[in-house]
From TrEMBL, chain A:
Main localization, broad class: membrane
Family assignment from sequence similarity: Belongs to the binding-protein-dependent transport system permease family.
Species the sequence originates in: Glycomyces lechevalierae
Protein name (Swiss-Prot/TrEMBL): ABC transporter permease
Keyword flag Plastid: no
Topology with respect to the bilayer: Multi-pass membrane protein
TrEMBL record, chain B:
Record keywords, A-Z: Signal, Transport
GO terms for MF: peptide transmembrane transporter activity
One of the Pfam families matching this protein, by short name: SBP_bac_5
Organism superkingdom: Bacteria
Solute-binding protein family domain sequence ranges: 94-421
GO biological process: peptide transport
Keyword Signal in annotation: yes
Full protein name: ABC transporter substrate-binding protein
InterPro entries registered for this protein in UniProt: Peptide/Ni-bd, SBP_5, SBP_5_dom
Sequence similarity: Belongs to the bacterial solute-binding protein 5 family.
Signal sequence coordinates: 1-31
Organism encoding this protein: Glycomyces lechevalierae
GO CC list: ATP-binding cassette (ABC) transporter complex; periplasmic space
Amino acid sequence: MLAYAAKRIGLGAVQVLAVACLAFALVELLPGDAAVALAGDQPDPAAIARIREQMHLDEPALARLRDWLGGLLTGDFGASLVSGRPVADLLATALRPTLVLAVSTLVLLLPLSIGLGVAAARRQGRWPDRVITTFTVGLYSVPEFALAVLLVSVFAIGLAWLPPTAVGVPSLLAEPAVLVLPLLVLLARPICSIARLVRAGMIEALDSEYVAHARRVGIPERRVVLAHALPNAITPATAQIARTADWLLGGVIVVESVFVIPGLGTALVDAVNARDLPVVQGIAVVFGATTVLVNLTADLVAFRLAPRLEVAR
Amino acid sequence: MPHPSTSPQMSRRVVLSAASLAVGASSAVLTACSGDSGTGASEPKTGGTLRAAFAGGGADETIDPHRVNLFADAARAKAVYDKLADLGTDMDAVPRLAESWTPDADLTVWTVKLREAVFHDGGPVRAADVLYSYRRIADPEGTFRAKQDLAPIDLEASKAVDDLTVEFVLHHPLAEFPNALAAFGAYIVPEGTDTFDSPVGSGPFKFVSFTPGSEFTAERFDDHWDGAPKLDRIQIVVADEESARINALLGGQVEYAHDLSATTARANEGNDAVVLVASPGSNMLGFAMKTDRAPFDDPQVRQAMFLLCDREELVESVLSGRGQTGNDLFGLGFEHYAADIPQRERDLETAKALLAAAGVQTITLDTADVGSGFTEAAQIFAEQAREAGIEVEINERNADTYWSEVLTEGQIASYRSGAMPIASHISQRLLTDSPTNVTQWHHADFDERYLQLQSTADEADREVLYQQIQQRLHDEGGYLVWGFADWIVGTLPSVHGVEQAPANTLDWARFDKVWMD
């Protein structure tokens, strides 16, 4: 398992590097550069040329890529073209709210979705199953932005129970009330997809030979479900959970903008708007790294839950 | 000064603006029976914290007052700093730190008297601080925004006569020189300031804290020369989406929401929970024709475009009626505006005849999603042109590079302009060497007329020149100005003293005269 993990980490590093180069190339291909974007509706050519020179945008692209990758190896993400602030600082600031949202969502998501899935599977075909299935299919088809707007208009503005946005809040954890609506929006769809996968896995597991055997030898039903059936039932859902974690860590732009949460998604949009290449690349590296890490974790967890899978490799 | 936007943000905006409509409409119903609006203000009260939501620029925002770019930057800067002058609601220069300005006979040396004012650290505002600030902005290596406005000043030759008197020597005569003292970003900082971790200004509020892309807090400065503000504190918070700003206002998270759309305004018209303050004339909307190339190098074709345009329809549909009709001139309602020139009306028959005579069959109209209603206006105008018998091909360009591209490329382009003095509009856009001459209007006699205006000390004589210049632009210029959008901000009913004022003028985002119940 260690050799497998080491190989995966090595491959991950290469993937992150490739993402960084790709991000550089794509931003390079966009029309205009940071100087033109910064000049906006005052496109005085002399001013644009001056900005370009100050930002060293007149140097060849390959030289800039080389300098940047070199800095990256020493942990230096470079400085923002727009403000001159270190990109690492900027990323750390934006990462915090994204992490708070992602971790709280996952902490709520796992017990809720697994519980719903197991509950539905154990009462397969009866009314609790039908209610859960109808609910999960229905909710899954509501896009985030529509749900966000609906929740804000009902609970924040209509009933005035909860704050509509997190505007001006110094830290999300300091005022947990602002987290409630964003968390509901972020939970809605993943709960549905994961609960349905767990339900399917659970139905299959409860129907299996080893569960029948466990029941025959007299192991209590509770233990059969939780200790024997569940680990196998969750395995198919781990990939989906990993995808969800990755989605959350990428900063969900719709949720961030409706609720005014300055996370990674907002930072990326701002940086692309300003053609702030070092920041775009820094975020691409962070996204690449989280995707690789999350998938690695998911594979290792799946391996732990159902070791027979490694044989198949 | 709005933040240049790209397509990812735009696609979100399209989705979210529909969403905000839904929110606005439902809240209007839900709150329709709450208390009275309270606009009829009584005695100003002291105290309280006002929270104001503005669109921002993320973690890259700066508090350096000479680097202001966004509306949020300008609102923060004007809380902490003062300029020598600022623009009044009709774009006349209003003295601020300057008490008076006096030109010499040929308008090339201006003596500016400063009023007695103090910085937040207790030091007096001196002539040396003014010269330091202007030299920092004018640094040839720098990219400060007000640099171009201060370019007429010979800062080497200018000097401090005494602590409260500055003598500005200009490179050429400039009758409208006080406009330069009011330039966007021309704030006065204490001599030697080069870092802004803890900004010290002479403005109505003292700096407390600033987190880029999130919040800015400042507290009352009791010794401000223009009287201490009523509010204890102001907080400027960042909410990029318009829907988030109106939601934060409706939810009571902020007391002031900057830059609301006409759609939001309409949805909240009968809503007593918010007060909408619409400032007319803030944003000019139109089309810029390139007067140096076919087909618009022919004045008859430009005339035809003027005549085929149905301005009322554009104002009604693009601005939801929240605006005024334009007369192909910049600066409606501003000082020196040629209000006596009759309003141009639609005349399809004449337009058709002119276009047929010139043999024009198709034109290409450039547009991009760089401002609200931009592409809609282009579509509607194209339809109007088709009624006059010409085919209009709409060329939608990339939003990021739009302004830079249409400066030199294309035939006719969607155009807008924020408020500025009419003289600045001319010097930035209509002289042969103007940096953003988007209509490619190059006429030596026109340049000369403008120089003559700037060298004319007598106000009545200058007014005549203003009228002549605008008459010429109205007759054969390249700007088709169809309308002026209102600038809309929203406040809670408990907020008083928010004036109607075009963006970036003295009374805009001016929180030192605001008070709350």
